[in-house]
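Q: Got a minute? One more chain.
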Amino acid sequence: MVLPSLCAYTKASYKPIMRKPFIIANMNAKNFRSNFMSLLTDSFKRLKMYVPIGHLRDIYKEHYRHFQLAQHPGIIHIPYQVSIMSLFEQYRMNIPLFFPSLDLLTEWHYTYRVVNERTWDGIS
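A: Always. Here it is, folded:
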């Protein structure tokens, strides 16, 4: 039996508040977090633009509600496995989602092991 990841339970929809930052979703490759922020900051400097960004757990220390995520302009993901439930939830809420290209994700994985989980509970 296949159960679709409908995620209708979120009952939230994208309603951005522009003063809120873009969110960087959880990354399991802790050694990559500072490198990623440096790369992102350098890119914005080269483009001469400012984009407010914050890590999910820096903005929401413990819990958040789905409507709170839907108030941010978008969410940046560095996938750490092939099936992240929050992706389905955020997609359902129509939140703009940003990902590295497959080539870039592959490069980051070989360098930093960013896609370090095969399954939800870490079973290989």
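A: The helical segments are 30-46, 56-59, 66-69, 85-92, 102-112.
Q: Perfect, thanks.
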